[in-house]
Structure formats: structure tokens, C-alpha cells
């Protein structure tokens, strides 16, 4: 596993332990006391460090290049996945993957942003940043799910919609906007899982669900902290500061009632143990899906509407602070 | 007078060689930001803030737009006093809000209400770029949503004039979610047969362009208006190429199939009236 800057002291400690062990093996001297002491300190450091991660450190974990992608989770959580391609209008955008699969035996539609595994893959997938055809492919698959009464499960993991000239020409705004409106009207359960980075409108275009759940170290915001820092303070290097101020972590979003649940990550992040992470996502999905499958079409639409309708904080001047009217 | 005076060298007054810059007197004259043409403010006002030389459509505040578009005296405002509460306690946001309020004389970037156009009753929401670059936070999203709901409840057509830099960073995720909230309200309203005319004005980008502004049953725009999702600089950095001058203009968007019509400001009221009329005719005998 490649280390993140903030993990350095931990790794130094681990290396020291390794050194001592090989020294004791080589010389026959007994360092067991020292080793035990260091191991204890290592464990302590690990516990406190990962328990109190800052927003900026979580951002690093969310963007870790070895972090599991949508396809990793799809393959680990579902069975019989059949990938489906194309928007039927222009192209097949590989920044979005989708298809049908079985969740504990139940046919569902799964869709997600897909980052690449290496440089070549990343170039083919535009680093997980969709063009309009990607959002339209997602919409086509969701419409299909709605027709065949299949629940929809989406995985959110993108820096944002692709900022390119061709994307603009083909209606990037319209593609995102249409997904927001159409997702609001589907009479099937929709559950969205933020697995990595939830960047702006490109993330939200797969994010209008009855339930939105988020991995412990995932982030979700209107603009990337780097972008915010460069606009607000004309200094992109202050991204860490912006990350704190913008309230981008799962904990923040649970407090703001944007998400319903935080899915814990293995210590050190999702990339440390894919199977364990997939299991905990699966457990959460199962619980929410059970609840949603009890509802009829109309209730599902109303449930989703009210989830989003109540978001926002404002007040009437010289009056009491208010939440949205019901 | 003495004789020698007749032969004395003529004295010329010195004229400074450097002419003073063409200063535009504050308030009296106006310089077009596009072509540099200078015109009387009164003329410009009469011309609906459209440059008589190049046709540049100047930016309007929400109040100017309402006065220009709605039947005189017909406008009744909704949620006049709604204001932001700085929900994330974002550094510097409170002070910036106060400064924007003082500058624009508005409480936030959206003014909404009902009135009439060409005699047809409508619900309108108008964005104002002079408040916080028209950015959408909780207040703007709520006011737009309430306008949609009011149009739905009263079975009135809805017209939204957009201008915005996108989601308001200082309310981050709450701003982003306003995109979903407004779009979901439109799903209900439009799904129930409601008429929504969206008018893009200069500039409309980011989260507003990527939500309610793009979802009109009819999407109109003023000439030259900048319309897009991502900003020009970000795109140029991504593709490492200069973009053409007309990139993301209203005309560019129409050419690429994103707009129904580009409408000159002087024709906007007539166009809206015509469109409204098309949806109001109830009983006609089509067989003569």
C-alpha cells in the first residue's frame, strides 16, 4: 500500500520494528521488550490517528489511487453483473459504468462513476469525469430500471463532470439537469453510495436517491476544495483550509441531514481491505433496500421529494430561523 | 499702440499635446464594455440597456428586469425578507453577505413573485448577478422552489430569468442540493402539465445552468449571453487549447441544439406574450 503524507510517522514506527526484529534475528540478542513496547505505541498511534482524521486527510484517502472503484464494489457486492453500454444517442462514455446484477438474488440496476486503474485506463475513462453521453447512458439505464421495476443503486466517485469543449457543445448542463429532474420521478427505490469523491453537479447527477449513504472517508461538496481555495483566496494551495471550511466529510453531511448513514471503513481506509468494505456496504444496502421495498411507487417518489425538499437553511429577516416548509 | 508692436512675434497659446482621456462622466454617459461606444445614460436606458452600436445586452438587476418585463404595477413579491443564515459558519461569509446586500439593495440573488405579462397572469423568478454573482445558496434555491410550487398550486405559467455563476461555495453541499430540490419541484410541476419558460441571461453557468435553467419547456436566451457548465479558463486548461470567441454564447448554444430561440431584449415581452397565448387558448372551433 502506498503511504499518504500524514501516515509517515506510522510507517517510520513500523519500519523501526521491522529493523529491530531483523537485528534480533541476525544477532540473537533479545529485543522482545523494546519490540513489544514499539508495537504497542504503533497500535496506539494508529488508533488515534485514524480516529481523528482531518477533512484534508480524509480528502487524501478519498482520492487514494488504490481506493476501490465502482467496478470493484459492483463485482464484490453483486452477482451476475451484466454490463450495458451506450446512451443510444452519441457514444459509450466509459467514465460511467452500469448494468444489471443481482443483489442477494434480487435483480437491480447498478450504475457508477468509474475512475481508471492506471494511466491508460484513466485516459479512456476521462479520470471518471463524465461527458453528457455518460449522464445520458446513466439516465437510459435508470429509465429501463423504472420500466422493469428494478431498484437502482448508484456509486458516486468523481471529481466532477468533464470540463471540456465537446462536453459543453453536447449540453453538459442539460444532461445533468435532466438527470436531476428524472431521478426525482422514478417509482422504484434509489440508493446512492458515495464511495470516494463526490464532486459537484457531476456527482449529484447520480445522486438523487431515497437514501444517500457515504463511506467514512468519502467527501462530497459543491466545488473541489482546490477550486474553492483558488477562487476564494486566489491560492489553490490552501485546499486543506477550504476542505475544513466547506464541511465535506461524511460526519458533516450526516449532521446537515444530507445523508442517512455513514458506512465505516477498515482502519486506514477502504483500500486496506476491499472484502471487509464491500461487506459493510452490502449490509447497509440490504437494510435500506428492505425498508424501501415496502413502499409503493407513489410513496417512493414522495419520500425522495421530501428528502430533498427540506434541504436548506434560511430565515425571514427579523423573524425566527426556519426550515423549509413541508 | 507702437509701430514695432505690429511686427512683434505672434504669441500662441500652448495647447497640451497629450489630450485628456475620454473620461465618462459618472452617471451621465456610459461606455459599452464590449465595443467601447459611449452613449448617454438616458439613451441607454431608453434602449433597455442594449448598446446602440454593437447590440451588447447589458446586465440588469432583478428589479430592472421585472420593471421592463411585467405589466406595469402588476408585480407582487414573494418571500421579500428571506435571507441567508450562514449555515456552515463559513469564514468571511457573513460580512460578504452584508456587503452584497448594501451594494445591490437585495436580500439575496433571487427576486420572485407573481404578476402579469401582456395581461396573462404568471409566476416569475428573476436572478440578479449584482448580488453575490447570482450564486445559488439555500435562499435562492428555496425561493425558486417556492415559486415553482406556487405556480403549481395556482395553475399559473412559470417564467424564470436566470443569471448566475453557479452554486454558492460558502454553503457548499447545501447549495449543491438546491439543484436537486429545484429540479424535483419542476418534475412535479411539469409532470402535472405546468408551463415553464426559462430565459437565460448573461451569464448563466455552473449549478444554475445544470439545474432549473436548462429544464424549460421552452429555453430562450438573450443575444450574446454566456451560457455553459464549466468556465472558459478551466476548459482551456483541460484541453490546452484556446477556445473560439463565440464559445458558450447564446448563439453557439442554439447552434448546438441547446436553445429554442435567441430573443432580443426589445422583443422579449412580445415573445413571452405570444408563447403564453399559445397555451391559454381554451376553446376554438377549428372547422370553419
Chart the SSEs and their pairings.
The complex is a heterodimer of chains A (326) and B (288).
Chain A: H1 8-27, H2 32-51, H3 55-62, H4 70-77, E1 79-83, E2 96-103, E3 106-113, H5 119-124, H6 132-147, E4 152-158, H7 165-169, H8 172-183, E5 190-199, H9 200-204, E6 211-215, E7 219-221, H10 225-232, H11 239-245, H12 250-255, E8 261-263, H13 274-293, H14 297-309, E9 314-316, E10 321-322
Parallel strand pairs in A: 3-4, 4-5, 5-6, 5-7, 6-8
Antiparallel strand pairs in A: 1-2, 2-3, 9-10
Helix pairs in contact in A: 1-2, 3-11, 4-13, 6-8, 10-11
Chain B: H1 3-7, E1 29-31, E2 38-40, H2 41-46, H3 62-69, E3 76-78, E4 82-84, H4 93-104, E5 110-117, E6 120-127, H5 138-154, E7 158-164, H6 172-191, E8 196-204, H7 206-209, E9 218-221, H8 232-239, H9 250-255, E10 261-262, H10 265-280
Parallel strand pairs in B: 6-7, 7-8, 8-9, 9-10
Antiparallel strand pairs in B: 1-2, 3-5, 5-6
Helix pairs in contact in B: 5-6
Structure commentary:
The complex is a heterodimer of chains A (326) and B (288). With 326 residues, chain A is α/β, with parallel strands linked by helices. Chain A has 14 helices and ten strands. In chain A, the strands form two sheets. In chain A, strands 1, 2, 3, 4, 5, 6, 7 and 8 form an eight-stranded mixed sheet that branches. In chain A, helix 3 crosses helix 11 and helix 10 packs across helix 11. The longest helix of chain A is centred in the first third of the chain and has 20 residues. The mean pLDDT of chain A is 93. Chain B has 288 residues and is of the alpha/beta class. Chain B folds into two domains: 31 residues, no CATH class; 221 residues, 2-enoyl-CoA Hydratase, Chain A, domain 1, CATH 3.90.226. In chain B, the strands form two sheets. A seven-stranded mixed sheet of chain B has the order 3-5-6-7-8-9-10, with helices on both faces. A two-stranded antiparallel ribbon of chain B has the order 1-2. In chain B, strand 8, helix 7 and strand 9 form a beta-alpha-beta unit. In chain B, helix 5 packs parallel to helix 6. The longest helix of chain B has 20 residues. The N and C termini of chain B lie far apart (99 Å). The model of chain B has no long low-confidence stretch (mean pLDDT 93). At the A-B interface, helix 7, helix 8, helix 9, helix 10 and helix 14 of A face strand 4, helix 5, helix 6, helix 7 and helix 8 of B.
Amino acid at each position: 500500500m502506498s503511504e499518504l503524507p500524514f501516515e509517515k510517522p506510522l510507517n517510520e514506527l513500523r519500519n523501526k520494528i521491522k529493523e529491530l526484529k531483523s537485528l534480533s534475528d541476525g544477532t540473537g540478542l533479545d529485543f522482545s521488550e523494546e519490540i513489544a513496547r514499539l508495537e504497542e505505541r504503533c497500535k496506539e498511534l494508529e488508533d488515534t490517528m485514524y480516529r481523528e482524521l482531518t477533512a484534508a486527510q480524509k480528502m487524501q484517502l478519498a482520492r487514494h489511487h488504490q481506493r476501490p472503484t465502482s467496478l470493484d464494489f459492483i463485482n464484490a457486492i453483486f452477482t451476475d453483473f451484466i454490463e450495458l453500454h451506450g446512451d443510444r444517442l452519441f457514444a459509450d462514455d466509459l467514465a460511467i459504468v452500469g448494468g444489471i446484477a443481482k443483489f442477494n438474488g434480487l435483480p437491480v440496476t447498478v450504475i457508477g462513476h468509474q475512475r481508471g486503474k492506471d494511466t491508460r485506463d484513466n485516459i479512456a475513462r476521462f479520470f471518471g469525469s463524465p461527458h453528457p453521453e455518460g449522464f445520458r447512458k446513466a439516465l437510459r439505464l435508470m429509465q429501463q430500471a423504472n420500466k422493469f421495476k428494478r431498484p437502482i443503486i448508484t456509486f458516486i466517485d468523481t471529481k466532477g463532470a468533464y470540463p471540456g469543449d465537446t462536453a459543453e457543445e453536447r449540453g453538459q448542463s442539460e444532461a445533468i439537469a435532466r438527470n436531476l429532474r428524472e431521478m426525482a420521478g422514478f417509482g422504484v427505490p434509489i440508493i446512492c453510495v458515495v464511495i470516494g469523491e463526490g464532486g459537484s453537479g457531476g456527482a449529484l447527477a447520480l445522486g438523487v436517491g431515497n437514501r444517500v449513504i457515504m463511506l467514512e472517508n468519502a467527501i462530497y461538496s459543491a466545488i473541489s476544495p482546490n477550486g474553492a481555495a483558488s477562487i476564494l483566496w486566489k491560492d489553490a494551495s490552501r485546499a486543506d483550509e477550504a476542505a475544513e471550511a466547506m464541511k465535506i466529510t461524511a460526519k458533516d453531511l450526516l449532521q446537515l441531514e444530507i445523508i442517512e448513514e455513514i458506512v465505516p471503513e477498515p482502519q486506514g481506509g477502504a483500500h486496506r481491505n476491499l472484502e471487509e468494505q464491500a461487506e459493510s456496504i452490502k449490509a447497509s444496502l440490504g437494510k435500506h433496500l428492505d425498508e424501501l421495498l415496502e413502499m409503493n411507487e407513489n410513496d417512493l417518489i414522495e419520500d425522495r421529494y421530501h428528502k430533498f425538499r427540506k434541504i436548506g437553511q434560511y430565515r425571514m429577516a427579523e423573524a425566527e430561523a426556519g426550515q423549509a416548509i413541508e | 499702440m507702437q509701430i514695432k508692436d505690429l511686427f512683434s512675434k505672434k504669441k500662441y497659446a500652448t495647447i497640451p499635446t497629450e489630450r485628456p482621456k475620454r473620461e465618462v462622466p459618472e452617471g451621465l454617459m456610459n461606455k459599452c464594455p464590449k465595443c467601447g461606444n459611449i452613449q448617454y445614460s438616458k439613451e441607454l436606458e431608453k434602449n433597455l440597456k442594449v448598446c446602440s452600436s454593437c447590440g451588447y445586452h447589458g446586465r440588469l438587476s432583478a428589479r430592472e428586469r421585472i420593471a421592463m418585463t411585467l405589466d406595469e404595477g402588476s408585480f407582487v413579491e414573494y418571500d421579500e425578507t428571506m435571507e441567508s443564515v450562514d449555515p456552515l459558519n463559513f469564514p468571511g461569509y457573513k460580512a460578504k453577505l452584508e456587503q452584497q446586500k448594501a451594494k445591490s439593495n437585495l436580500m439575496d440573488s433571487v427576486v420572485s413573485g407573481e404578476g402579469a405579462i401582456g395581461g396573462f397572469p404568471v409566476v416569475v423568478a428573476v436572478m440578479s448577478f449584482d448580488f453575490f454573482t447570482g450564486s445559488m445558496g439555500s435562499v435562492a434555491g428555496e425561493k425558486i422552489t417556492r415559486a415553482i410550487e406556487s405556480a403549481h398550486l395556482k395553475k399559473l405559467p412559470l417564467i424564470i430569468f436566470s443569471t448566475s455563476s453557479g452554486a454558492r461555495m460558502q454553503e457548499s453541499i447545501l447549495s449543491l442540493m438546491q439543484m436537486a430540490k429545484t429540479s424535483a419541484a419542476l418534475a412535479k410541476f411539469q409532470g402535472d402539465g405546468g408551463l415553464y419558460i426559462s430565459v437565460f441571461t448573461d451569464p448563466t453557468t455552473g449549478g444554475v445552468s445544470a439545474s432549473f435553467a436548462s429544464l424549460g419547456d421552452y429555453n430562450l436566451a438573450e443575444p450574446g449571453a454566456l451560457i455553459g457548465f464549466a468556465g472558459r479558463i478551466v476548459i482551456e486548461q483541460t484541453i490546452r487549447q484556446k477556445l473560439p470567441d463565440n464559445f458558450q454564447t447564446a448563439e453557439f448554444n442554439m447552434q448546438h441544439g441547446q436553445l429554442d430561440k435567441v430573443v432580443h431584449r426589445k422583443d422579449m415581452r412580445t415573445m413571452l406574450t405570444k408563447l403564453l397565448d399559445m397555451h391559454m387558448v381554451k376553446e376554438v372551433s377549428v372547422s370553419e
